[in-house]
Amino acid sequence: MFQIIRCMLDDNGEIAARRPLQPMYELWEDAVAMAKFDSSRLGGDHGYDEARQCWWASDSSGRMHRFIVEPGVVEDVAA
Q: Domain locations in the chain?
């Protein structure tokens, strides 16, 4: 399972906040496609960062974000 993590960057380009997005995806390719879509919805510039292997975007306020695909943790639910 894979999860998209939306990271807001500070003025130095460092991660200031991380927010896991829902849902989880079974396929890495599906998660990457949705990360690309999510980055395009912020209203500013967006693109793919080859070095970090993630999508990035700026929002209408000029804040920078990264959309990182990571393996997700699925917790077992006891019946």
A: 2-71
